[in-house]
């Protein structure tokens, strides 16, 4: 039970930021409560593997409360935060319960953005949660099943909208499934005749990477069988396909399974915070935080991770925006915890500084691009070596020893057999 | 593509019976089509492990079409059979498609029976499919989460209705979770204070077992912390609990999660078959088959597995009913395939003979009962040795090498750490 004498720290969200903040308070004289609307910490960088049947959900989702079993000052609660009272220092849950706090760290993350076209969501699910991954897996596998029933691959198109890391990972893996995993499993169709199209509105995929790696990624995707189309702007999405404005004019693209990987927006909790504290939001709905990650005028509240429009501060240089990646969220979690303890001790807080270790993305079997920031300058490579590096980096950062072992084994198995074991479909009906 | 010259064999259902029948036709000069409404073969004996978070779904669910990758005369289709035309030799799918057959093997299995009280289904899910397992897992884990939110274990009761193999496995594992798995994960409640009640209407649990093993099972369950109540008849179930007629009169039992393991009924396809062919059904809706497993008067149609009310025939002895267990279904699959080929060759068919290798059930960590039929007479044992025997027997029969390896690893891990890794809950809302 929490000790009424000790400061009560409330963390909203058990993603990379929230988890890291709670861990950083391990030895601190505070009671921590972490509240999340799901019961697990999700290793999002591998979520596309669940969506494509390569990994089972429990391999990348660790029960939140088991992660804190050994940290006695953490209480884990399952609940959805719907309101914040900054003056009374209370958080409101959807079930009517209230949670008090002395210090609040909001790490509620991001969700999809359809740029105002929320009607597209039903036809083109995004990939943020396990439920999203199950829905995409269901659509992907059912499209092949329907084609076998029809004995026809005519409309067996898969379209991924958005050429960022999630988009290229999904497109590359879908092509791999069609060409390798499903080979010899169908009798009336040739699954390799499925077409995977990757649509990117900008001039190149992986725009956050240096141009040479973008070009390498495009070539690797094409070698895997992905039809990469840059400068292709989506103007409409329905159940049967998409309307696209391409380099050569508008055209129609039939699609048996469309996935949205084009835009993210901050969690709606940003607006809740703005209503409660008057804080400012940027265009993506992210909270503009002070250099020390607290809310301007509300030092007891910090915002971290994808919900924060944070800047990296290095003395003598202009501040730089922090990219929405997991290392950024984890580093913010540690800084927010450190600043919270500094405030308790009456010491000055420190500005957040983002350490960029680089950037990597995988595209499918043997294919990846890596852009590492080293003390000697950038180290860039692609192809097989990049893929091995990507694999071990991701397994290393997976939470929980058991999961790492299982994921490595799953991959070793998939590598030799081309099989993807997690191909469960429990319902023929769509989610909507 | 199927060869129009070769006899077309249609198998409905990819459970133990259907899978085994298709495999037995591996080298036969026939084209086999196997149709199922889900895309996976489910290893049902371990389904309770998914319901209790010990195994992930893909560990016990192999994609049906990948099981037949190497068997070129099998076409796998995803579809729900809703009608049969015995004269035209056509099967009707829910989507309007028709599948022709020369020989039909119906292996559609069983479902829950609430003995006419289908309104209980919403409050007490049964355990037949992966969706059932997910729903039970959700309710079980959310009950603990709710108790932690309330800081109160008052109503933290789990009630399993039915003391057959599934009921004792679920009750024993639930007790293990409360006492071991969740220890140290809660701060406001002691999960070990959860109460697991097993209600059985008859005088003893595992009624199919010899009396000594039933008594041993009861003692082992009680040692695990299960409150075993025999002679307890359920008269009502609602969202908050059950009404029970016990040995000492009627009483009310609060329940945070009720599971139905008390009754099974044959698949509704039995009634479809009866309508199409005039065949007789028994009280549980199972099809009364001829000794060679065909439908009386319809030699082109066979019924096997849990949907068949089959008898075991041994020369010189009276026929004996076949129990609804997986070895029975598999043996029927092989006999139906053999008889189908005999008919093609114009040879006489053979009566089904069930070989009973015994019976075993597990009750939780270190606890099981085994009743083996050996040439030297029955071999009966319980406790630790029985548990090890049960474990290896089940892993041995798991379909697919990879799954065996993963399941063994999961168990080794769970054994040493008491952890259950597959504790994903993706939605807070109930299924209904």
From TrEMBL, chains A, B:
<keyword id="KW-0274">FAD</keyword>
<comment type="similarity">
    <text>Belongs to the NADH dehydrogenase family.</text>
</comment>
<keyword id="KW-0285">Flavoprotein</keyword>
<dbReference type="InterPro" id="IPR054585">
    <property type="entry name" value="NDH2-like_C"/>
</dbReference>
<feature type="domain" description="External alternative NADH-ubiquinone oxidoreductase-like C-terminal">
    <location>
        <begin position="358"/>
        <end position="412"/>
    </location>
</feature>
<dbReference type="Pfam" id="PF22366">
    <property type="entry name" value="NDH2_C"/>
</dbReference>
<keyword id="KW-0809">Transit peptide</keyword>
<keyword id="KW-0520">NAD</keyword>
<dbReference type="InterPro" id="IPR036188">
    <property type="entry name" value="FAD/NAD-bd_sf"/>
</dbReference>
<dbReference type="Pfam" id="PF07992">
    <property type="entry name" value="Pyr_redox_2"/>
</dbReference>
<dbReference type="GO" id="GO:0050136">
    <property type="term" value="F:NADH dehydrogenase (quinone) (non-electrogenic) activity"/>
</dbReference>
<keyword id="KW-0812">Transmembrane</keyword>
<keyword id="KW-0472">Membrane</keyword>
<protein>
    <recommendedName>
        <fullName>NADH:ubiquinone reductase (non-electrogenic)</fullName>
        <ecNumber>1.6.5.9</ecNumber>
    </recommendedName>
</protein>
<keyword id="KW-0560">Oxidoreductase</keyword>
<keyword id="KW-1133">Transmembrane helix</keyword>
<feature type="domain" description="FAD/NAD(P)-binding">
    <location>
        <begin position="8"/>
        <end position="315"/>
    </location>
</feature>
<feature type="transmembrane region" description="Helical">
    <location>
        <begin position="381"/>
        <end position="399"/>
    </location>
</feature>
<dbReference type="InterPro" id="IPR023753">
    <property type="entry name" value="FAD/NAD-binding_dom"/>
</dbReference>
<dbReference type="InterPro" id="IPR045024">
    <property type="entry name" value="NDH-2"/>
</dbReference>
